[in-house]
UniProtKB/TrEMBL annotation, chain A:
The chain crosses the membrane at residues 27-52, 76-98, 110-126, 132-148, 160-180, 192-214, 226-250, 262-279, 300-325, 337-354, 366-384. Keywords: Cell membrane, Membrane, Transmembrane, Transmembrane helix, Transport. PANTHER family: INNER MEMBRANE AMINO-ACID ABC TRANSPORTER PERMEASE PROTEIN YHDY (PTHR30614:SF41), MEMBRANE COMPONENT OF AMINO ACID ABC TRANSPORTER (PTHR30614). PROSITE patterns: ABC_TM1. Belongs to the binding-protein-dependent transport system permease family. Residues 191-385 form the ABC transmembrane type-1 domain. This is Amino acid ABC transporter permease. It is found in: Cell membrane. The keyword Magnesium does not apply. InterPro entries: AA_ABC_transptr_permease_3TM, ArtM/GltK/GlnP/TcyL/YhdX-like, MetI-like, MetI-like_sf. It is a multi-pass membrane protein.
UniProtKB/TrEMBL annotation, chain B:
The lineage of its organism: Bacteria, Bacillati, Cyanobacteriota, Cyanophyceae, Leptolyngbyales. It is a multi-pass membrane protein. It is found in: Cell membrane. It comes from Trichocoleus desertorum GB2-A4. This is ABC transporter permease subunit. Belongs to the binding-protein-dependent transport system permease family. HisMQ subfamily.
């Protein structure tokens, strides 16, 4: 047996060795460890003591529905469950068909998510109907993941269209009309509104951002100047200023007959803001496409529009997907600013719950719970984005 | 000889070049004209005439914190100046604090101590993934307003007093002779700089800069103490005097909450930038430096950090800009920054356009100044390529 055939030596360390190596390898590290342990102990003692003895979590428990869907009519909640089901089903299909075939992580990941969802369903003190819905949706995720994996080649090209097509259906289910009882946008609150604001804004901002990025790279000086000016001005202003512009100035510069409601004005502001930031990401993607690609395409006789549509954009946008997810995360957090403009999204509903006399002063409980909701969404997306980045990076190296 | 058939107009690139630009200009002009006519019609209906004359009328509202003197009888222009001063105050302190915390957390993320690494990771991932506004609400309502009301107080070593009305920290206080001391200090710095510059031209090994600095400082202090018999800067510790706190640096809960919230939030991004920057320095640099026999602290200071700085500085600038822009969230917790004052001004006068113009111009100028400074610094750290 040569040395090459020998199996690698099994590296196993005892907990003692691990401690020596990771916590107490030098004198200053030992000191640091001790200081950190002491701090950790102090903080945990205070926080856990507060959580289990002083905090009154009834404020969260009694308002659970408000946090998620706000004042949406309770007897129409099935429509929102259906919406969640469609989104989860599509997400499962996409996850299943896009995850690389060999990666074990995705299988484990989907099992973990399903298990967590089922665990939440069983453990949380919820009434029966939400429990049934949640359980069914968790199983749906698992099922659609396997379906997606099984028919990956068939589904992959259709996914983008499926999402785009589902969007109006989801809006119809939430808003009603066309045979369903319509629900005024005033009743779309809480996490539901936050999600809607974020997704709608990013979807609408995306085409604008591509146009802006292309405009900034255009060889027509006037177009280039306009786009650069727009992007730089918007990026130099605080979001709250842009939202002020959308809420106050938009009604002034639009004709009197065209009255946008508060929600639409908010979305307009968010779109304006995010288009500028996304445009910079897209521009980076455009610059990453080697010049040879468009030169080769033009040499083949494609006209400039086709070169852009078939050659440059697909490559550029593929590179910027992680950046777009990152932008979506920050947009998701930014929607909280709309609570300053009297929109009752997740932060807004927290403030209105805190304004009720019986929950006066329960700031910490409510804000921690709402923070947890934001955190779950943002953190899971940032993990997904990191995976995507690795996945795309690997793909990039191979070609 | 006949020239070849001329290219039809619609296939001529130059034709489209001109048409495209003319079209864009025309469309923009039409859009602006429509917006403008709507605007003037709507403003006419509201009975408002465009103009900045209103800035001279009396503001008649109170501002919580006034770093420059202000009374409600002053005009709107003065009120907005106070707002700007408040914005700049929180931005400057925020940038300093965020940099310190961020760099520390970023280095902690790279520590070889497992516990330190994990703590930094938890800090970064929690605060980065929740909205800043929510954090500000939490800091203000749950933390700073949750402190006991005077005369009850929480005392931390320092002494630092935490109360609902104010947060008091020990701080320097200016004495009669502070000017003299500042003069001496600048002379000292100049001296050290000259010495260092002169020393660096000589080939012989010189005394380390820090030693020179400390040495001359000690000599200057000694001379000044003997000749002038004064203290440099008073060390002003806050103290409890009959149900109130006197002395020290007293921060309002609004300012403290905004400063802490903004800095800790921005610091998470700075931590990631620092970590990324240090990791972007190739492993070979570490190995080569170690092979040369440099001490670990020297490796970091002389080899890794100057290279990491090149990728850190531009992103750091972006975070400073974000911090300056995010300081406008002050309105949510009742700190009178520029946006808050402008918003009150709009509510009182209905001058949407003028207020919007003022906000835009001011924030754009702040952004420009910060990015200008960062660009200037960036040029000094970047590699000079031949």
């Amino acid at each position: 047996m040569t040395l090459d055939d020998a199996p690698p030596p099994v590296l196993s360390i005892t907990p003692w060795q691990w401690l020596r190596r990771n916590l107490f390898n030098t004198w200053y590290n030992s000191l640091l460890t001790l200081i950190c342990l002491w701090l950790l102990f102090q903080v945990l003692q205070a926080v856990l003591g507060w959580v289990f003895t002083q905090a009154q979590w009834t404020v969260v428990q009694t308002n659970l529905r408000l946090f998620f869907i706000g004042r949406y009519p309770p007897n129409l909640a099935w429509r929102l469950w259906l919406v969640l089901g469609i989104v989860v089903g599509l997400a499962g299909l996409s996850w299943g068909s896009l995850a690389p075939a060999r990666s074990l992580w995705s299988k484990r990941g989907v099992s973990i998510v399903t298990a967590i969802a089922l665990g939440v369903t069983i453990l949380l003190p919820l009434p029966l109907p939400p429990r049934l819905w949640l359980g069914a949706i968790a199983l749906l995720l698992f099922g659609s993941f396997w379906l997606g994996k099984r028919f990956a080649t068939l589904l992959k090209p259709q996914l983008a269209w499926a999402w785009l097509g589902a969007f109006p259906i989801l809006l119809w289910l939430i808003g009603g009309g066309l045979g369903l009882r319509s629900v005024s946008t005033n009743f779309w609150n809480g996490l539901l509104l936050t999600m809607l604001l974020a997704t709608t804004s990013i979807v609408l901002a995306f085409p604008f951002s591509v146009l802006l990025a292309l405009g900034r790279q255009s060889n027509l000086p006037v177009v280039r100047w306009f786009c650069t000016l727009f992007v730089e001005i918007v990026r130099g202003l605080p979001l709250i200023g842009i939202l002020f512009l959308a809420q106050v100035m938009l009604p002034l510069i639009l004709p009197v007959e065209l009255r946008l409601d508060r929600l639409l004005r908010a979305i307009a502001g968010l779109v304006l803001f995010n288009a500028a930031y996304l445009a910079e990401n897209v521009r980076a993607g455009l610059q990453a496409v080697p010049r040879g690609q468009s030169e080769a395409a033009r040499a083949l006789g494609l006209n400039p529009l086709w070169v852009l549509w078939l050659i440059v954009l697909p490559q550029a946008l593929r590179v910027v997907i992680p950046a777009i997810v990152g932008q979506f995360i920050s947009l998701f957090k930014d929607t909280s600013l709309l609570s300053i403009f009297a929109l009752v999204e997740l932060t807004g509903i927290a403030r209105s719950i805190l304004a009720q006399p019986q929950f006066l002063g329960r700031y910490a409980e409510v804000y921690l719970f709402v923070g947890l909701l934001y955190w779950i969404v943002c953190y899971s997306m940032s993990i997904a984005s990191r995976r995507l980045e690795q996945h795309l990076g690997v793909g990039h190296k191979r070609t | 000889m006949k020239t070849q058939r001329s290219v039809p107009l619609w296939r001529d690139v130059r034709f489209w070049w001109v048409v495209g630009q003319v079209l864009v200009v025309l469309l923009t002009a039409i859009a602006i004209a429509i917006f403008w006519s709507n605007l003037s019609r709507n403003l006419q209906q509201l009975g408002i005439q465009f103009g900045f004359g209103f800035l001279n009328s009396q503001a008649a509202f109170d501002i919580g914190e006034t770093p420059i003197s202000y009374r409600p009888s002053d005009n709107y222009a003065r009120a907005l100046q106070v707002g700007l001063a408040n914005s700049l105050r929180v931005t400057v302190f925020g940038i300093v604090l965020a940099t310190v915390v961020g760099v520390t957390a970023g280095i902690a993320r790279l520590s070889d101590n497992w516990l330190v690494r994990q703590l930094a990771l938890v800090y970064v991932e929690t605060l980065r993934n929740t909205p800043l506004l929510l954090q500000l609400f939490f800091w203000y309502f749950a933390v700073f307003l949750g402190f006991p009301r005077l005369p009850a107080h929480i005392q931390l070593p320092g002494p630092i007093y935490l109360t609902q009305q104010t947060v008091a920290l020990p701080w320097f206080h200016v004495t009669r002779d502070t000017d003299v001391w500042l003069l001496l200090l600048s002379a000292n710095l100049l001296l050290v700089w000259a010495w260092h510059w002169w020393g660096s031209r000589a080939a012989a090994p010189t005394v380390p800069l820090l030693l020179k600095l400390l040495g001359t400082l000690a000599v200057t202090v000694a001379i000044a103490l003997i000749i002038f018999e004064t203290e440099i800067l008073g060390w002003d510790a806050p103290r409890i005097v009959a149900d109130s706190i006197e002395g020290g640096l007293q921060l309002s809960p609004e300012f403290a909450a905004l400063l802490v919230g903004l800095s800790l939030y921005t610091a998470t991004f700075i931590a990631e930038i620092v970590r990324g920057g240090v990791q972007s320095v190739s492993q070979g640099q570490w190995e080569a430096a170690r092979a040369l026999g440099l001490r670990p602290s020297y490796i970091l200071r002389l080899v890794i950090f100057p290279q990491a700085l090149r990728s850190i500085v531009p992103s750091l600038g972006n975070q400073y800009l974000n911090l300056a822009k995010n300081s406008s969230l002050a309105i949510a917790i009742g700190y009178s920054d520029l946006y808050a004052v402008a918003s009150t001004t709009y509510n009182q006068t209905g001058r949407a356009v003028e207020v919007m113009v003022l906000i835009s111009v001011t924030y754009l100028s702040i952004s420009l100044v910060i990015s200008g400074l960062i660009n200037w610094y960036n040029r000094t750290v970047q590699l000079v390529e031949r």
